[in-house]
Design goal:
The complex is a heterodimer of chains A (110) and B (116). By secondary structure, chain A is mostly beta strands. Chain A is built from no helices and 11 strands. In chain A, strands 2, 4, 5, 9, 10 and 11 form a 6-stranded mixed beta sheet that branches. A 5-stranded antiparallel beta sheet of chain A has the order 1-3-8-7-6, with no helix packed on it. The radius of gyration of chain A is 13 Å and the shape is globular. Chain B is mainly beta. In chain B, strands 2, 4, 5, 6, 9, 10 and 11 form a 7-stranded mixed beta sheet that branches. A 4-stranded antiparallel beta sheet of chain B has the order 1-3-8-7, with no helix packed on it. The chains are: A mainly beta (110), B mainly beta (116). At the A-B interface, strand 5, strand 9 and strand 10 of A face strand 5 and strand 10 of B.
Chain lengths: 110, 116
């Protein structure tokens, strides 16, 4: 079946350093969504990418969708302690379903 | 605005006992509804989804079942819990209708279920 993998599984960074998580799908994706889950919380939608090669920015966060629509990345510039959490990508599988990636847990050391 | 409610927030149940988790959505009609399970420190596993009253799609064979008795109510049940059913259960909704495939999912606060 369709699989969505994320790397790295964990990342510890010093505050102010950059961070990147990569999402790879075994199949071509129609679109991809990114979510953030704070410790003890629930996932919160961040953004959706639909077009091949699409790049979107949200303040210090940059999201990219690969040309082949099989991979995506999330880059955070100059991390802050508020960026702590687990970041998930989710690729659409069929009309209604999304397959969530394995997640990358980010810890930011002050 | 739309809100999603899940309860209870935490639950401790003995092995073999039944389970009923409820999720309700307010402020929208005919939402798509989802149940996910998240093991500690792991990703989200889709268990069930529903696109309408009485319409349930099951993703993973298990001893859990789901029902949608009303438009904005989604229930997760089990007749006999197993140790492996422990986890964080999340309900989510998304808009239906136009551009249904490109709608974000909005999650409830979840239920932490521990099986003893």
């Amino acid at each position: 079946g369709q699989q969505v993998m994320q790397i790295p599984q964990y990342q510890h960074v010093q505050e102010g350093e950059d961070f990147t998580t990569y999402c790879n799908s075994s199949t071509t994706l129609s679109n991809i969504q990114w979510y953030k889950q704070r410790p003890g919380g629930h996932p919160v939608f961040l953004i959706q990418l639909v077009k091949s090669g699409e790049v979107k920015k949200q303040k210090r966060l940059t999201f990219q969708f690969g040309e082949a629509k099989k991979n995506s990345s999330l880059h955070i510039t100059a991390t802050q302690t508020t960026d702590v959490g687990t970041y998930f990508c989710a690729g659409r599988s069929g009309t209604y379903k999304y397959i969530f990636g394995t997640g990358t847990r980010l810890k930011v050391l002050a | 605005s739309q809100t999603i409610h899940q309860w209870p927030a935490t639950l401790v149940q003995p092995v073999g006992s039944p389970l009923s988790l409820e999720c309700t959505v307010e402020g929208t009609s005919n939402p798509n509804l989802y149940w996910y399970r998240q093991a500690a420190g792991r990703g989200l596993q889709l268990l069930f989804y529903s696109v309408g009253i009485g319409q349930i799609s099951s993703e993973v064979p298990q001893n859990l079942s789901a029902s949608r008795p009303q438009d904005r109510q989604f229930i997760l049940s089990s007749k006999k819990l197993l140790l492996s059913d422990s986890g964080f259960y999340l309900c989510a909704w998304s808009r239906s209708g136009f551009d249904v495939s490109n709608q974000p999912q909005h999650f409830g606060d979840g239920t932490r279920l521990s099986i003893l």
